[in-house]
Specification:
Cytochrome-c3 Hydrogenase, Chain A, domain 2; Rossmann fold
């Protein structure tokens, strides 16, 4: 028989001392913090202190279920216990396996991963293993095709419900939830909520009791001044906006690339029109030679004056075509 009371506390202390850094601590349930932790005690000690002691010497800690993840139902609006997840009280490596309930397959797979690789599996920013919480339920759901074709259950028990159509309009939170419920299933993979005809309630997500309620309707508007705008509408608008920005960026990149290509082609064409180095050198020499001043022309020698005894020779030119130059010359001689 297992010990109880003081004997159980002594067994725990001895085991922690003998196996330090050689065990994994698996914790289920939230941690009450109100009233100095008096709402949950172990051997008269607040459970928060016990968790600190146990996890301090562990090789790693596994938080099992949504309550251990972030407080779960006890931490929802109206709770009086000041419930918290185990993360604030764990000093070492922590892996969280949220779910209400947890999928036992994920716990077994986490333990096998540690035994095989001597380390806990890679996780997302919330400490959840990527192998189990890395994909949207919506993307693995067997009813996804009905979503794409616009085939939705409009009321419980209607024709769509009987045909297994998509439960999105009945409040299914699959498009907002990361978990492997659709692929791993429960009860040995036999079924899971959507397969049984009930929408996903997002129980693997932070604060899902408040964030995902009401479970059977689409998410309410987060904008008080726009009550008809749902969180889904905002999400879809954000996706469209991001896609639009990405498209504009792609178009801008294409235009810039074409401009750069055109500039490169113009530069290449201009380079072909530039003369070679030898031609440039020859042209420069020609320009230099042309720029040199021409030497001044030597003055013509002055004509020597005729001698006094020599009469000047007179040559008469008749400006009238066909004139008889001999007659004019004879007239001159008679004078």
């Amino acid at each position: 028989m297992a010990p109880s009371g003081a004997d159980a506390s002594a067994t725990l202390a001895a085991s922690l001392k003998a196996n330090r850094d050689r065990y994994l601590a698996v914790i289920e349930g939230s941690v009450p913090t109100a009233a100095n932790g008096a709402m949950c005690t172990v051997a008269g000690r607040p459970v928060a202190d016990v968790i600190r002691e146990v996890t301090a010497g562990a090789a790693g800690t596994i938080a099992v279920g949504s309550c251990a993840f972030d407080g779960g139902l006890s931490a929802a609006s109206g709770g009086a216990t000041g419930a918290s997840g185990v993360a604030p009280f764990v000093s070492g490596t922590l892996v969280a396996l949220p779910g209400c309930p947890i999928n036992a397959f994920n716990l077994a797979a986490t333990l096998v991963h540690y035994l095989t690789f001597n380390e806990l599996p890679p996780t997302d920013a919330g400490g959840r293993p990527l192998f189990a919480y890395g994909a949207l339920v919506h993307n693995e759901c067997e009813r996804r095709a009905h979503f794409e074709f616009g085939e939705f259950v409009q009321a419980w028990g209607d024709e769509g419900a009987q045909k297994g159509w998509c439960l999105y309009k009945m409040g299914c939170k699959g498009p907002e939830t990361y978990a492997n419920c659709a692929s791993a299933g429960f009860d040995g993979g036999l079924s899971w909520p959507v397969k049984a005809g009930v929408g996903c309630i997002g129980c693997t997500m932070p604060a899902f009791w408040d964030a995902m309620s009401p479970f059977t309707r689409r998410l309410p508007s987060p904008l008080p001044f726009l009550p008809n705008v749902t969180a889904d509408d905002i999400g879809q608008a954000a996706v469209i906006g991001i896609a639009g920005v990405a498209g504009l960026h792609a178009v801008g990149s294409y235009v810039r690339a074409n401009r750069q290509g055109a500039a490169a082609r113009r530069a290449k064409a201009a380079a072909k029109l530039v003369p070679s180095g030898a031609a440039i050198e020859g042209a420069a020499v020609a320009v230099a030679v042309a720029a040199e001043p021409m030497p001044a022309a030597e003055p013509m020698p002055a004509a020597e004056p005729a001698a006094a005894d020599e009469a000047p020779t007179t040559i008469l030119v008749d400006a009238v075509p066909g004139a008889d130059l001999d007659a004019d010359a004879g007239a001159g001689e008679s004078d």
